[in-house]
Q: What sequence folds into this?
């Protein structure tokens, strides 16, 4: 196996369980994985971040100490970090010294415009990013994200039992609300069913209502509870297509894009960078301009021919191969 007998220190955000899936995938490939969160994400920490920046900083320093202790207690073959928010240059210097024989890998699933990681790049042997613009600007390999096995073939599982022509699941940000309102209105005119779950917690929703960012008449578009991954998969199984609206300060393809790719569903996305990828399929994918919204109802007719592109490279195991493949071209440029 790829990592047989290898020890990996894995540091990443706690994010919808993806850190567990990545840990499980690495373990299945023979690795012994020690996972530690990049930041203290406890309830206490989340509260402190809102009310006491000093106390929140103290909790984060305590978390870095936990990582340091783990590094002191073992010799790792690989140190694998995703994002690295809160990891200071001083901490990275210490980690490099304590793991002098390890290879250091950094993968970014945020743009530096969202989470500025540029100052820690020199401490890694191999760096790659999901973001197209970051890749070009910082001259680092571009490596797209992945889908999990749970999504494979989901879109083909219910046959004629589809309840929704289009589905959307995601957190509130940027212009997502306006785009959802557009599709809800236009699809209703055509007698098509649009199912959406735009998530925003109660307190942030209240703040945006007070500020006027969200109007009372638009509250009906917001859900104050999140969905589990199983809920999302069930939703997909009854859908013909999925809407993807990426964060407008990032250029990388979202995780949602690859979930849809693995599921076999159709995709509508605001990210024009998908046009440059080998799996782009104009019969089953549509790119829209978020500033000039439109849609073609023909997309919701019978699915076009199944694309012939091998998408296994975009599975979680394909992603691990790409991120740790240090003998090849060090990534792609698009």
A:
């Amino acid at each position: 196996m790829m990592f047989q007998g290898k020890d990996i220190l894995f540091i990443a955000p706690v994010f919808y369980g993806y850190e567990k899936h990545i840990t499980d995938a690495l373990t299945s490939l023979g690795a012994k994985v020690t996972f530690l969160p990049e930041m203290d994400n406890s309830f206490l920490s989340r509260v402190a971040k809102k009310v006491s920046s000093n106390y929140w900083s103290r909790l984060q320093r305590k978390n870095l100490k936990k990582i340091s202790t783990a590094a002191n207690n073992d010799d790792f073959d690989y140190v694998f970090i995703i994002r690295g928010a809160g990891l200071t240059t001083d901490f990275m210097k210490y980690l490099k010294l304590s793991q002098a024989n390890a290879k250091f890998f950094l993968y970014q699933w945020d743009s530096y415009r969202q989470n500025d990681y540029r100052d820690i790049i020199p401490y890694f042997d191999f760096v790659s990013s999901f973001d197209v613009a970051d890749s070009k600007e910082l001259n680092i390999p571009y490596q797209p994200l992945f889908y999990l096995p749970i999504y494979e073939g989901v879109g083909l599982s219910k046959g004629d039992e589809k309840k929704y022509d289009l589905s959307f699941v995601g957190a509130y940000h940027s212009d997502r609300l306006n785009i959802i309102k557009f599709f809800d209105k236009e699809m209703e005119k055509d007698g098509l069913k649009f199912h959406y779950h735009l998530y925003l917690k109660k307190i942030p929703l209240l703040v945006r209502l007070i500020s006027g960012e969200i109007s009372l008449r638009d509250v009906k578009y917001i859900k104050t509870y999140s969905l589990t991954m199983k809920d999302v998969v069930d939703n997909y199984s009854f859908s013909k297509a999925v809407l993807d609206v990426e964060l407008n300060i990032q250029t990388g393809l979202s995780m949602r894009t690859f979930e849809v790719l693995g599921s076999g569903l159709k995709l509508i996305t605001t990210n024009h960078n998908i046009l440059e990828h080998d799996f782009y399929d104009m019969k089953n994918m549509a790119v829209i301009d978020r500033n000039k919204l439109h849609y073609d109802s023909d997309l919701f007719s019978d699915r076009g021919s199944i694309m012939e592109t091998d998408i296994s490279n975009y599975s979680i195991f394909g992603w691990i191969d790409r991120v740790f493949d240090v003998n090849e071209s060090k990534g792609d440029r698009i």
Observations:
- The chain has two domains: 7-146+315-324, 149-309.
- The first strand starts at residue 7 and ends at 12.
- The chain is about 35% helix and 15% strand.
